[in-house]
Amino acid sequence: MAGAVEDAERRAEARPLATVERDALAQTPARDALAMLAPADRVKIIAEVKRASPSRGDLATIPDPARQARLYEEGGASAISVLTEGRKFKGSLADLEAVRAAVSLPVLRKDFLATPYQVLEARASGADLVLLIVAALDQKTLAELYALTTELGMTALVETHSADELDRAADLGAKLIGVNARNLSTFELDRDLFGSLVEKFPADAIKIAESAVLTPSDVAHYRSAGADVVLVGEALVTGDPVATLRAFLQETP
Ligand SMILES: O=C(O)c1ccccc1NCC(=O)[C@H](O)[C@H](O)COP(=O)(O)O
């Protein structure tokens, strides 16, 4: 988290806030992620471009993230997540820009966002959604970043990992809320966490189960617990993305 903010501060030396703000406002409008991810009679998938991670190390080189994203679109994904953090995840804003230009789906900037500069930077690079991690932000900062995201026409995916964090997401009025099965400090995975928290979601929020999907039965597990959407990374970058997505979508109502 600290590294992501330091990296953004370094970028801000070359591209000041006023410039990134101007570029954000000049972007084509954000795609409607809430419409794409709305609850339906089938599960939906956010497919992630993920080269590496702190818990798993290197996963895939992904020399052409635009191609990877096109395969996700072909396989039936409803949105694309792009990890833009460089140190541990080996991602970049250039990946996000390439993906946004290659597909017609909404694109999420998945990173450790903690400043308005990073939110503006996301929009300036074409992001339609940004990730806001409740555990990483005090409520005042979370509310400020949430408001800026909405002002820019984007959607915030508000990520939680506990009942208290779900309450904080609800206090914001968040419409897209995720429960990450991965504890971001210990990297432990708990596929049952989503189901144990599902009753805490506000009635009008889209329910997303994040992480730890490796097989169609993992998707079915989240779906039967009440997920509208699942977010998948590793399984799609280590296997055939189109076949994997189709299997996940076909075998789950
Ligand atoms: O993936 C990690 O190791 C990780 C560690 C610390 C913070 C975030 C991390 N991952 C970000 C994600 O939330 C996942 O990339 C995403 O939910 C997909 O997870 P998976 O399908 O298990 O690859």
UniProtKB/TrEMBL annotation:
Main EC class the enzyme belongs to: lyase
Gene3D superfamilies on file: Aldolase class I
Pfam families found in the cross-reference section: IGPS
Signal peptide limits: none
Keyword annotations: Amino-acid biosynthesis, Aromatic amino acid biosynthesis, Decarboxylase, Lyase, Tryptophan biosynthesis
Reactions this protein catalyses: 1-(2-carboxyphenylamino)-1-deoxy-D-ribulose 5-phosphate + H(+) = (1S,2R)-1-C-(indol-3-yl)glycerol 3-phosphate + CO2 + H2O
Alphabetized PROSITE patterns for the sequence: IGPS
Keyword Amino-acid biosynthesis: yes
GO BP field: L-tryptophan biosynthetic process
CDD domains: IGPS
Superkingdom of origin: Eukaryota
Keyword Amino-acid biosynthesis: yes
InterPro entries reported for this sequence: Aldolase_TIM, Indole-3-glycerol_P_synth, Indole-3-glycerol_P_synth_dom, Indole-3-GlycerolPSynthase_CS, RibuloseP-bd_barrel
Annotated pathway: Amino-acid biosynthesis; L-tryptophan biosynthesis; L-tryptophan from chorismate: step 4/5
EC code: 4.1.1.48
GO terms for MF: indole-3-glycerol-phosphate synthase activity; phosphoribosylanthranilate isomerase activity
All residue ranges annotated as the Indole-3-glycerol phosphate synthase domain in the record: 7-240
PANTHER family named among the record's database cross-references: INDOLE-3-GLYCEROL-PHOSPHATE SYNTHASE, TRYPTOPHAN BIOSYNTHESIS PROTEIN
NCBIfam families named in the record: PRK00278.1-1 (NF001369)
Protein name: indole-3-glycerol-phosphate synthase
Source species: Rhynchospora breviuscula
